[in-house]
Amino acid sequence: MRTYTELSPSPRTIMTPGPVEVDPRVLRALSYPILGQFDPEFTSYMNDTMEMLRSVFQTNNKWAFPVDGTSRSGLEAVLASLIEPGDKVLVPIYGRFGHLLHELAERCGAEVTTIHAEWGSVFDQDEVISAIERAKPDLVAIVHGETSTGRVQPLDRIGPACREAGVLLVVDAVATIGGIPVKTDEWRIDAVIGGTQKCLSVPSGMAPITFNERAESKILSRKRVERGIRPPGYEEPDGLGARIQSNYLDLAQLMDYWSPARLNHHTEMTSMLYGLREGLRIVLQEGLEARFERHRLNESALVAGLEAMGLPLYGDPDCKMAVVTCVTIPEGVDGESVRSMLLDQFGIEIASSFGPLKGKIWRIGTMGYSCSRKNVLHLLGAFEAVLLRHGAKVNAGAGLQAALDVYESK
Ligand SMILES: *Cc1c(COP(=O)(O)O)cnc(C)c1O
Q1: How many structural domains is the chain composed of?
Q2: Counting atoms of ligand 1 from 1, which one is nearest the CA of 173?
Q3: Pick from 263, 284, 305: which residue ends a domain?
Q4: 3-state secondary structure of 140
């Protein structure tokens, strides 16, 4: 009989845009005993999680809870619950995840209009606002931090413009939540989807979301109670909108589950909820402002180091995302070979990119627990050595000195 070795994953330095390293406190939380999903002790943990999510999303929304599944499940739950077949949806696209929103909206039966900004840049908010005036959509879906290109889209004027036009605004903040400010209420966003395995530093497997009353009323207008749990004599109200196509990702049902009704839907992911609760507790203990500042500081040191080495950064610097730094792969250097050597010799993982940027850039994440001085300095030293080994021209010795200058001036 074949035997298998004991599971023993190597400790890595993960400098990708996710999944990133996880605080040992979160790993410990994942190992605690299982509670039943309706055990009052467990439902109190669910309520704590909702409360902490409201703080992280900077919102007073009643609804803030995780969807069980990776971040994509949160995107799909929100879009499937808010878009009825035939609805008009506008998707501004400036990278891979904008294309994902387009695809998801299409699968919901929307009539989708897209506008495009060149990869490596973002939209001037006025361009989006005039597209809203032209297309008159029911809903706008846009990415806040586009990890494929390392850019961040300002939203502070798009939100109020949507509100004024009576359009629902859905934002993919999967990569930004917990790393840079996501001001749900101030920016007038109707529904926001966050991610766990990026700046929150919790393993992949849940998608925290929040939405306001505008989104709620659209969802409730489509609400059905699942056949097997209807009370005796239940009659479906007249005049409902189109039934939400997904059962698993039906926010109307999830709302019943996450409210005092605790109406059974799926079995909540006990261990993941412990992990998320602990991860959020760590975020709030650090404090949002201090956490954003830590991300900015490590970004500055990383960027100073890369520039001092003489490496060209990719993309428009005015809209650079603090938590992802993209480096143009120098001519004649095999990007994948550099990544392999970083992993094999130094235990460091960085990312490549997708689509038109495949083979063109490396992406270095500074997210959550991975976003530390130790990791930035370790990466810069290793990167220099590996690049020299690959015959690239770098200013040997300059990178670490520049990064140390940034840290020491703080
Ligand atoms: C990572 C990411 C996703 C997808 O997240 P999964 O957890 O892999 O489903 C979606 N949008 C953005 C902007 C991301 O960075």
Answers
A1: 2
A2: 13
A3: 284
A4: strand
Report the DSSP pairing between strands 63-68 and 206-211.
Answer: antiparallel
Q: How far, in Å, CA of 271 to CA of 119, rounded?
A: 38
Residue 349 Cβ < 6 Å to ligand 1: no
- CATH for 93: 3.40.640.10
94 lines ligand 1 (CB under 6 A): no
Ligand 1 and 59: CB distance under 6 A: no
- Are 226 and 355 contained in the same domain? no
How far is ligand 1, taken at its centre, from the CA of residue 72, in Å?
A: 6
pTM given for the model = 0.97
Is the CB of residue 95 less than 8 Å from the CB of residue 149? yes
| Ligand 1 contact via 50 beta carbon (within 6 Å) | no
Range(s) of the domain holding residue 220: 22-284
Residue 323 near residue 198, CB atoms below 8 Å: yes
Q: Is the CB of 104 under 6 A from ligand 1?
A: no
The protein residue whose alpha carbon is closest to atom 12 in ligand 1 is 174
Amino acid identity of residue 269, one-letter, is M
275 plus 295 within the same structural domain: no
Per-block mean pLDDT, blocks of 10 residues, the chain (410 long): 94 97 98 96 98 98 98 98 98 98 98 97 98 98 98 98 98 98 98 98 98 98 92 90 96 96 92 98 98 98 98 98 98 96 98 92 98 98 98 97 96
Shared domain check, 198 and 222? yes
The domain boundary residue, chosen from 284, 319, 349:
284
Residue written as tokens 């040191």?
Answer: 301
Does the beta carbon of 18 lie inside 6 Å of ligand 1? yes
Residue nearest to atom 6 of ligand 1 (CA): 71
